[in-house]
Structures are given as structure tokens and as C-alpha cells.
Design a protein that fits this description.
375 residues, mainly alpha, two-stranded antiparallel ribbon, two-stranded antiparallel sheet, 11 helices, 4% strand
């Protein structure tokens, strides 16, 4: 009956075994032939139990190695492409690459930039206040009951100024921007001139004293006088409308022009701007993805090779253990044969001694007998 002795110390899905009976059968053979037979038998026995797993590990290692080689070649090519691509590129300004150096800021430009900024704030603030005060003085119920509504209505003025400024930003042609700027300046200055004219018409009436106002009063031709001299006629109302409208237009367009001037000063002294290269960003993302995939493939390859190495070392350990048992059994057999030979030698020596003793005693008895007969 075949005896399979499972030994501890081996790890695996199937515990390697040593065929003791086969080893005992090989003990009588020459040592070299016996060791070769024990190795071949236990190798075949191990592959019979773990051959499928060992082949699977080898194939997985081969697959991962081929995939890893392909990925590493792609990663190397990707790194070569990244070397030839700039990480940042100049940003475009007005359709051209922003590569030209700009002038440093000087005291005059800084002062003009600050003055323009203050001018924008002052124009918009006073424009909102003027419109809101006119709305409050109109006597409308909606504004007298809730004065904040007047400020909400007046908020359209800064929004309109910003819209005029954005219109200039949307233009790409230098000529179109220049025409747009001068047109806005002309409209703003025209509003100022109209406002001055309307103010000049109203100012004589506003500058009169109370006594002068009483002297100008007359019961005759009241309609004609009120149309020009008083503040309640249709002409006065139209002058009021023209004054408010021209003032709002001037504040909107002049604040927009000042904002455009601030933008031009900034563009004159702006730093050279660099932006991320989209091609480099895309290649960098692909490189990182490839590096992660390569790392995963290396771990998979290491796991496959580790499993293969574990099985191969189990095979080597099993063969070495089987050879050690064969050598042990051979040594025991030789020792037993030596002991038997020694025992046989001792028995033969004892028997020889006893026979010699018996032979010597018989010879002495024969000699004594001959002597007695002779006497």
C-alpha cells in the first residue's frame, strides 16, 4: 500500500507530499541513480498536483510582461512628446500672442489711473443721487412712501455705464474700438454741453431774489410770461427733462470713457500673460493615466511571478527533502549491512577460536595417548 506522508512547512493550495515507499524501493540502487529516480518521481508527483496552477502563473506572468512592455513603450513615447511641448504658452490679446514686453508703471500713468477710477466712482455716485433726488421731488406716491425705490430706479445708470464699457471690450478691431471710444466721448461731452445750456436757461430765474421775483409778477399776459420766466410752464418742464436726461447721458458715457481709459492704461502696462497649454495638459493627463496603469501591471506581474516562484521553491524543497530521506534510508541500510557484517565477522572469529581450541585439545590428547602407549 502506498504511503503518502504529508509534511508541514510547505504552503500552497495543495500540500506537497513525499512518497516514502518509492524512496525505500530505490535504496538498494546506486546513489546517483537513486537520487535521479527520486527527483524525477517527486517532480512528476508535484506537477501532477500543482502543474495547472504553475502553468497558469507562468501564462499570467507572460501576459502581464507583454502588456507591461507595451505600456512602458507608450509611456516612453509620451514622455518624448511632452519634452517637445511647452507647458505654458502666451495668451492671445486682440488676436495676437501676448509676447511683447510692456512698459513699467510710471507716476503719471498711476496718477491718471487713480484719477480715472475716482472719476468713475464720483460720476456714478452723483448720477444715482441726482436721479433719485429728482424722483423723490417728483411727488409721486410710490417714491414718497418708499424712498428706496428711487435708488433702485437710479441703479440703472451704473449698469448702463458698464454696458457701454463692455461694448468696447467686445470689439476686436483696433479701428472699431477707436471709433467707439470717440463716439462715446462725443456723446458724453454733448450731454455736458446740453446740460450746461439747459442750466444756463434756468439759472437767471434761480438766481433772482424774492423781491425780484415779486416785481416780475404780473396779472397781464400770464401765460406768455409763465412759459419763459416762471418755473411752472410747459417750457420749464421740458427744460427740466432735458437737464436730467443730458446729465444722465453725460454721466453714463463719461464714466464709460473713463473706464475704457483705465483699461487702456492697464493694457499698456500689463504683465506678459502665460496660459496653460491645452495640448500639454491633455498629454500630462494621459501620461499620469499610463503611469497608473503601468504601476498596476507591475503589481500584477509581481503577484504572478511571486506565485510561480512560490510553487517552484515548493518543488525544490520537496525534491531536496525526498533526496534527504533517500540518503537517510541509504545510510541506514549501509549501517545495518555494516552491523550485520561486523556481527558475522565476530561470530566467525568466535567460531574459529573455538574450533582452534578444540583442535589444539585433541592434538594434546593424541600426543599424550601416544606417549602412554610407548611406555
Amino acid at each position: 500500500m502506498t504511503q503518502l506522508i504529508a509534511k508541514n512547512g510547505f504552503t500552497g493550495e495543495q500540500t506537497p507530499t513525499v512518497h516514502m515507499e518509492f524512496i525505500q524501493h530505490q535504496v538498494g540502487r546506486p546513489e546517483a541513480e537513486g537520487l535521479e529516480a527520486v527527483e524525477s518521481y517527486h517532480r512528476a508527483l508535484f506537477l501532477h498536483q500543482n502543474g495547472a496552477e504553475l502553468e497558469r502563473c507562468q501564462q499570467q506572468a507572460r501576459i502581464h510582461q507583454e502588456r507591461l512592455s507595451h505600456l512602458e513603450s507608450r509611456l516612453q513615447a509620451m514622455n518624448g512628446r511632452l519634452v517637445a511641448v511647452d507647458k505654458v504658452i502666451p495668451a492671445e490679446v486682440n488676436g495676437q500672442a501676448d509676447t511683447q514686453p510692456t512698459m513699467p508703471w510710471n507716476a503719471w500713468d498711476v496718477a491718471m489711473f487713480i484719477a480715472a477710477g475716482l472719476g468713475v466712482v464720483v460720476l456714478l455716485a452723483f448720477g444715482v443721487l441726482n436721479i433719485s433726488f429728482n424722483l423723490l421731488e417728483s411727488g409721486l406716491v410710490t417714491f414718497t412712501e418708499s424712498p428706496f425705490r428711487a435708488y433702485f430706479w437710479a441703479a440703472l445708470l451704473p449698469v448702463g455705464a458698464l454696458a457701454v464699457k463692455v461694448g468696447w471690450d467686445l470689439l476686436e478691431s483696433t479701428k472699431a474700438r477707436r471709433v467707439y471710444l470717440w463716439s462715446s466721448l462725443v456723446i458724453g461731452l454733448g450731454g455736458v454741453i446740453v446740460w450746461l445750456a439747459a442750466y444756463s436757461v434756468v439759472y437767471p430765474t434761480l438766481s433772482r431774489s424774492i423781491s425780484e421775483q415779486i416785481q416780475t409778477l404780473s396779472v397781464f399776459d400770464a401765460a406768455a410770461d409763465s412759459a419763459l420766466g416762471s418755473g411752472s410752464g410747459p417750457a420749464a418742464k421740458w427744460i427740466d427733462v432735458i437737464t436730467v436726461a443730458s446729465q444722465a447721458i453725460a454721466e453714463i458715457f463719461l464714466s464709460a470713457v473713463l473706464g475704457i481709459h483705465m483699461t487702456m492704461l492697464y493694457l499698456k502696462h500689463r504683465p506678459v500673460r502665460l496660459a496653460s497649454n491645452p495640448l500639454f495638459t491633455q498629454l500630462e493627463e494621459e501620461r499620469r493615466s499610463l503611469e497608473q496603469t503601468v504601476a498596476e501591471e507591475r503589481m500584477s506581474l509581481a503577484a504572478a511571478k511571486g506565485a510561480e516562484s512560490r510553487l517552484l521553491h515548493q518543488l525544490e524543497a520537496l525534491i531536496a527533502y525526498a533526496k534527504s530521506l533517500f540518503q537517510k534510508e541509504s545510510a541506514l541500510l549501509k549501517d545495518q549491512a555494516h552491523q550485520r557484517q561486523t556481527l558475522l565477522n565476530q561470530l566467525s572469529e568466535t567460531l574459529r577460536t573455538q574450533l582452534d581450541t578444540i583442535s589444539n585439545g585433541a592434538a594434546r590428547n593424541h600426543t599424550l595417548t601416544e606417549k602412554e602407549s610407548a611406555q
